[in-house]
Amino acid sequence: MSTSLIFQQLGISLLLGLLVGLQRQHTEADVPGLRTFPMITVLGTVAALASNVIGGWLLTAGFLGVTIMLLFPNLIRLRGEHPDPGITTDIAALLMYMVGALLVLLPDQTSVAVAIGGGVAVLLQFKPELHGMAKRLGDNDLKAIMQFVLLSCVILPVLPNENYLLGVLNPREIWLMVVLIVGISLFGYIAYKYFGRDAGIILGGCLGGAISSTATTVSHARRTGVGECDARVASLVILIASTVVFVRILLLVAVVAPSLLVTLSPPVLATMLLMLLPAMILWLRMRGESNPMPEQKNPTQLKAALMFAALYAMVQLALALVRDHVGRQGLYGVAVLSGLTDMDAITLSTARMFQGETGNATWIVTEAWRLILCAALSNLCFKLIMIAVVGTRDLLRRVALLYALPFFGGLAILFFWP
User: Fold this and answer.
1) Whole-number Å distance between alpha carbons of 164 and 157
2) What is the rounded average pLDDT of the residues 18-37?
3) Is-contact 90 75, C-beta < 8 A?
4) Would you give the distance in Å from CA 30 to the centre of its chain?
5) Which of 17, 90, 97, 165 could link 41 by a cystine bridge, Cβ 3.0 to 4.6 Å?
């Protein structure tokens, strides 16, 4: 190992130790701080360097020595009348020792050690915010997070990674799409819990779109029907939530088939702009009005996940059957029907079809975005139907007028976009 590399490792170790030590020195008293943390981190680096010559036992001995040194003053405090000092700083010190050693043990992965060291400093610094967030979460919210862990860390790994039925249905890939959708919805749900029901109109619409734009539309339409919400406010929230759908489309495609973004982004962004224009005009006329959000449902329920998995599988199978036996024009019928109730399934299915057949069927390069946009326009029509069923005529009239520009503009994009 060259001398320059050794000094580089020691320098990075020293800087990471200083970073964490500075945070501890600033926020805590009577704990290892600005001098101790750099020495612990550098000790880990030196022990790892020496273990290359002496043996790995030295690194282990150093870790045990640091552990004993950290425990000793805590035992003295506990024997007296001092309160429990906690173990956060001690764990951070032991972790930084290993970060220093990691710089030597994985010389080609320096960024990993730097990321860990920086992450330790961030976690220590944002203690009040993290504790406050934990206090805001109730039992049902923690249950939602654990259910997401069940979906992503327990169910996903055990599903078979094999193709069935025309080679388009892969249980693990289907469930991976479920995890992706549930993860996006869970993010919106946790954000809703953090900001509370008193979120403003814009934030309420954005969070509603992140969780479920269709559910947001139905809930606000029902509230206007019973006189709990003004039709003007509800129409703006519904329009913003529907605009977020296009953001979800771009996000899902970026994850599943990033190469499709080249052709998808311009027409989708153009249609989204046609939704943003009336939303901005209406918001400027309504600034300052409040909009308490209705209670949001847990998006990680196993039943809902299974329903989306079944819908996604059916859309995938329908696209494959129509493509092989009817022709590509029939795919638009599938897109319209699927988009009526859910945009995520048709977006993911089309993106995966594009990702798998770009080399064999060049037509999908130009048709994929049209299928997704066609489904999005169908989704707007379905929301109008739901408003007509559970909302007021005033809300239906307002939303129909707001949807007119993006709907007819979207149709023009479908037919005339090159």
Assistant:
1) 18
2) 74
3) no
4) 39
5) 17
| Residues 173, 313: Cα–Cα separation, whole Å | 10
Find, among 100, 271, 84, 296, the residue nearest to 189 by Cα.
296
Write out the DSSP string of 223-238. HHHTTSS-HHHHHHHH
Q: Of residues 337 and 363, which shows the higher confidence score?
A: 337
User: What is the rounded distance in angstroms from the CA atom of residue 296 to the CA atom of residue 338?
Assistant: 24
Is residue 216 within 8 Å of 383, Cβ to Cβ?
no
- Per-position b or e across 237-250, b if 16+ CB within 10 A of its CB: bbbbbbbbbbbbbb
Question: Burial, 409: exposed, middle or buried (Cβ in 10 Å; 0-12, 13-18, 19+)?
Answer: middle
Q: Is the CB of residue 305 less than 8 Å from the CB of residue 182?
A: yes
Nearest CA among 314, 369, 367 for reference residue 338: 314
More confident residue, 405 or 1: 405
User: 159-216: per-residue pLDDT in tens?
Assistant: 998 888 767 788 998 899 899 888 888 888 887 777 655 566 777 788 888 888 888 8
